[in-house]
Amino acid sequence: MSSNSIDNSEKIDEFTNNSTNVLTNVESAEEKRLLKKIDLRIIPLVTILYTLSFLDRVNIGNAKLAHLERDLGLTGDEYNWALGIFFLGYVLFEVPSNIALIKIKPSIWISTLMVGWGAIMTGMAFVKNFSELMAVRFLLGAFESGLFPGVVFYLTKWYKKSERTYRISLFFSGATIAGAFNGLLAYAITNLDGKFNLHGWQWLFIIDGVMTVIVAFFSYFLISDYAETASWLTEDERKLAIDRLRYDGGHTHTTHFDKHQILQAFKDSKIYIYMFLYFCLLVTLYSFSFFVPTIVNGLGFNTVISQLLSTPPFILGCISCLVIAKLSDHFGVRSPYLIFCLLISIFGYAILIVPNASTAAKYTAVCIVGLGAFSTIPTILAW
């Protein structure tokens, strides 16, 4: 190797080390201020969006308690089919939606999806039979499919790897907030039963859907696409926001992609291993989220009390999400916390299947499942 090559290599190393040192020094002051500014602008908004998304997909569980099955004449497993068809639409359109997201501005794509599923949610109040319910649930899944993976991708354009678990948990806590809020909201809304000749479950779908459409309109203007185009950041802040992601490694600082990069994801074996793990976790999460009102009702409580008692498990899930995420980011490990949360869920479900367990013990078990199930999702997503 020539002396010139050695000199050039040393200069490159020196430049890289100096750049890293500069960024590290900045981190104690400017980067912390920047991070706080990004948090205040990004996290509350995406949390509200996901709260509405989760609310709209699981409110059918509360509608069941408000006699949805009876009014639509559902028999046998038809209610379960209506739950499942949502995920068919979700799975089919999830990947195409994220591919569209990298071609279209997040502010446009995400807001448009919200208008779509908000309108569908409102329309679900007027279905008359099983076939119509199936069609609407499928469309709801198709339109909602873009939000959750879209926001996870979107957050990687703002946060470093060491910051993501906690931020993902903050926005995912919208799901737990939605679950808690849904029980209280459903209790209040279903009391409108009979108003304007509409059933309580119809009012539930209408109000949830209209809220989504209203928020979607404002999100067109409030969602910031990427750091380099954020008008609320100064020029120096925009440069720092991009640089800190560049030095964090990978391609998270880029906002343009080609077909080769998309194909790489399909060829990566780790993606398919992750899919299997994620599938297993979601079986636990959604079976719990959809059936909490029914489980509580099955313990002997009436409809009103069941709606209210559906709230605490989700609140506990929200707390555990934030605590586990903070610890995971702090120590820089994922799998120990993931396994710990899974063991908590297993313990809760084990109590639920004990035949002679008291009502108090079984309700406590429901809360324990909530503690474990929700916190697994932000952990594996960040991993």
From TrEMBL:
Limits of the Major facilitator superfamily (MFS) profile domain: 42-383
One term under GO cellular component: membrane
Compartments, record wording: Membrane
Pfam families linked: MFS_1
Key word Transmembrane present: yes
Membrane topology category: Multi-pass membrane protein
Transmembrane segments: 80-101, 108-127, 133-156, 168-189, 201-223, 271-292, 304-325, 337-357, 363-382
MF term (GO), any: transmembrane transporter activity
UniProtKB keywords: Membrane, Transmembrane, Transmembrane helix, Transport
Protein name: MFS general substrate transporter
Native species: Gigaspora margarita
Origin organism lineage: Eukaryota, Fungi, Fungi incertae sedis, Mucoromycota, Glomeromycotina
